[in-house]
Amino acid sequence: MSLRLLTWGPDWGVASVEPKCLSVLAYLRFAKITSVTVETTKELYSTALYHQRGLLPPLVFTKNEDGEENEENCISTVPQIIARLRGVANIDSNLSTKDCADAVAIETMLTSMLYPAIQHFLWLDPKNYQDVTRPSYATSLPFPLAAFILPTMVSKARAVTHSNDELEIKQKASQCLETLADLLGSSKYFYGNRPSSIDAIVFGYIGIILRSSLPHAALRLEVNTHPKLVEWFENLEKEYFRDVLRDYNEKIKNSKSGLWYSSTLVKQASYISIAVAAMSFYGLLVLTNRASK
């Protein structure tokens, strides 16, 4: 039985611009899993179909022996996805029962205290959204899906933050980061002598904070007050994501020389010429899916 992962694409020097997707990709790298098919949101049909069903990455689908998928039964939460990936390669086999219990508590803390802050600064801060988030996520989507999906992401961010004010959000994030730094201490990994699923999950969150280059960077400033946490992230990044860093640096180099900018203009002109057809396709997809129910 094989698996397919649908994930947001790369930018900012990280393998995915979405923290939970980056956590899942980190697990794949740490566990050296190569049998999972990784598909990004650049795939028009898949992304449009699942968005229409109210689903957004990370999503994992199970294939049977004939290579067929049950698309109605996808896995969409990080704990469930990692639990399924452990069946392929388990990097938590050296953890004690207490460590596993702590891992659950850490994941809950990240989801309730740090994830809302990341969502707030990515999607609800106007300058961050306009300058960084929107262009990066739009690049990860086939035209014209950004017009449909990005507003959904903003709505989801509002739901996650529960309309709390920015000060309260930052205070909770600060407490979470301090707890993570204390747990890590001077160790190379959170538990044991090799990366575990906790390292993978935390990597996704810290990676987005450190690499997203947001103009209003309160979270990055907060992470930088914990140098051991930054060192932990950078060591894992160099060991497991060196190719992503290389590709991103090449993209930056080309953009400075004008090559990337020129190719972007050509792509935008092409996108405009197919806008009507693409939007018609999306509408047809929705109608077809409804008719099949």
Task: Tell me about this structure.
This protein is mostly helical and 293 residues long. Helix 1 links the parallel strand 1 and strand 2 (37-40). The longest helix has 28 residues, at 97-124. Helix content is 65%, strand content 5%. It has a 3-stranded mixed β-sheet with strand order 2-1-3, with no helix packed on it. Helix 4 packs across helix 6 (146-161), helix 4 packs antiparallel against helix 7 (166-184) and helix 4 packs parallel to helix 8 (197-211). The protein has helices at 19-30, 44-52, 78-86, 97-124, 126-139, 146-161, 166-184, 197-211, 218-223, 227-240, 242-257, 259-273, 275-291, and strands spanning 2-7, 37-40, 59-63.
Structural class given helices, strands, pairing?
mainly alpha
- Approximate shape: globular
**What's the N-to-C terminus distance?**
27 Å
Helix count from the secondary structure assignment = 13
SSE topology string: EHEHEHHHHHHHHHHH
Question: TL;DR of this structure?
Answer:
With 293 residues, the protein is mainly alpha-helical.
Q: How are the elements arranged and paired?
A:
Blueprint (H helix, E strand, L loop, with lengths): L1 E6 L11 H12 L6 E4 L3 H9 L6 E5 L14 H9 L10 H28 L1 H14 L6 H16 L4 H19 L12 H15 L6 H6 L3 H14 L1 H16 L1 H15 L1 H17 L2
Parallel strand pairs: 1-2
Antiparallel strand pairs: 1-3
Helix pairs in contact: 1-3, 1-8, 2-13, 4-5, 4-6, 4-7, 4-8
Key structural traits:
single chain; 293 residues; mainly alpha; three-stranded mixed beta sheet; 65% helix
